[in-house]
Amino acid sequence: MSVYFEKKVSLELIKLFLIYVFNIKEDEVKIFEQNYFFENGYLEVDDHIKCLCTYRYLTGDVNLIIDLYRIEDQSPKIMIERVKSFFLCNNWDGFIIVENIDDDYLKIGNSLIQSVRINDDLIEDDIVYFIDK
User: Is 14 in a helix, a strand, or coil?
Assistant: First the structure.
């Protein structure tokens, strides 16, 4: 599962987001920079980790992508409720985009829920755009 953030956020905020939205404990989360993880970071992961997260900075409509492994998918309804609640608790004024079903994505903000499509033709150059449906 991938989550795109409009803004660059700290690793601490990423961790808080994962703990809150996916209802997991702090010691069950491991976060790696994407290149480091695929080069040798995977050796640092043991079986008790329930959420393995890699991140990479982007440009375009979003500035950060996190890819989640070992995490149980949430229903879109639960995900929207938890994300909106997380935004309110942390005074967040931006948006995130999460994978939905069938290559559909949901753009979620404080007062926004919108279905969008991804244009990742330039992902090799770390550029991603989203198009309104």
Answer: helix
